[in-house]
Write a structure and sequence with these properties.
three-stranded parallel β-sheet, Rossmann fold, 15% strand, 13 strands, alpha/beta, 14 helices, globular, 357 residues
Length: 357
């Protein structure tokens, strides 16, 4: 099978994790496939031996990238006679290439929770995403929650083929560190991760005599000063530490060594830390949010509501999970492999190609 994988907007965060693990597993399990991976010049994303095509993007990138995607990448797909195109984000060519194209949809947070985005960011996403939805021949949604959101907010798209393809999590098994040897982990890099709720929950647990574990807050970034003040105000300085954005290896070691993953996100497309934590064999705490409930499948400690008291209670329950419960969670998470992600994605692309023929 010959596929053009378009990763022009996948250099950072969870999108990069998805793309790199997908490409690595594809090379391992289908080495005879011919993948052309199109990246912007200067990209450091790993393409694992696939045919890498770097293309120049004129400035400003906000205009240059869609121009390149609609001209250079489109011409490349046609000249190379690929069977299908996989656009790894809903930011791709503005015109149809005539080749079956699947667009990966990660989440629709900008539509469900627009208050978490600036007006300019919402406008840019609406223009680019909506056009990508129009030119797509089908969709790969990373969760049932994401596909349901897509069909609810864009009902006309329900007529197009779609597949729910979960991420893998087995990359965590190769990370350095000993599970359970470090503090509990939570996140602060986006407002939907709810770091303030976690801090308030930690203070509530302490005040109730519940002895929550030490906590490391990852991804504090520009919010570090405010969160530091909040930690001091709550008197949590002895048990809570704030970390900036970490290099990949440091992040991997922190995650792999966690004694608990506390992930009360109010919105996720998938929620990768949930299955990473379960596969490492440590307790996981989540909120009553559809995507994380979907991937946890009853194996996480769930907040009853979005209150500090509920978080304190969920953390306390998680700390008392026994080995059998953790083993069942680990067994469930072991099903989330990148090999499965590749197989299901590849099968869907073959389906689109056959429909086209």
């Amino acid at each position: 099978m010959k596929v053009l994988v378009e990763v022009m907007a996948a250099d950072f965060g969870g999108i990069r994790t998805y793309v790199e693990n997908l490409l690595r597993a594809w090379e391992q399990h289908h080495p005879d496939d011919d993948l052309l991976v199109v990246v912007p010049e200067g990209s450091t994303i790993a393409t694992y031996g696939h045919d890498r095509r770097a293309v120049a993007v004129p400035r400003p990138q906000v205009a240059g990238r869609p121009w390149v995607q609609s001209t250079t990448v489109r011409r490349l797909a046609r000249s190379e006679h690929v069977d299908a195109v996989l656009a790894t984000m809903p930011v791709t060519s503005l015109v149809r290439s005539g080749i079956p194209t699947a667009v990966v949809v990660h989440d629709l947070r900008h539509e469900v929770l627009p208050e978490q985005f600036s007006r300019a960011r919402r406008l840019l996403r609406r223009i680019s995403y909506d056009r990508s939805y129009q030119v797509a021949d089908g969709f790969v949604a990373v969760s049932r929650r994401t596909l349901d959101d897509l069909h609810r907010l864009h009902p006309r798209l329900a007529a197009k083929p779609a597949a729910v393809v979960h991420h893998g999590a087995d990359h965590v098994l190769g990370w350095p560190g000993t599970p359970g040897s470090g503090p509990a982990i939570t996140f602060a890099h986006h407002t939907n991760k709810n770091p303030d709720l976690v801090l308030d929950g930690w203070a509530t647990a302490r005040d109730r005599g519940l002895s929550p574990p030490d906590l490391l807050v990852l991804g504090t970034g520009s919010d570090r000063e405010r969160l530091s003040a909040r930690v001091a105000e709550l008197g949590l300085g002895a048990t809570v530490r704030l970390a900036p954005f970490l290099a990949d290896e440091e992040f991997a070691a922190a995650m792999r060594s966690a004694s608990m993953v506390v992930f009360p996100s109010s919105f996720e497309g998938f929620g990768l830390p949930v299955v990473e934590g379960m596969l490492s064999g440590v307790p996981v705490v989540i909120g009553p949010e559809p995507a994380t409930l979907e991937v946890a499948a009853g194996h996480a400690s769930v907040l009853a509501d979005w209150s500090p008291a509920s978080l304190a209670e969920a953390v306390d329950r998680a700390s008392r999970l026994d080995e059998d419960q953790l083993a069942r969670a680990r067994e469930h998470a072991a099903g989330f492999t990148w090999a499965r992600t590749v197989e299901e994605t590849r099968t869907f692309l073959q389906r689109l190609a056959e429909r086209s023929r």
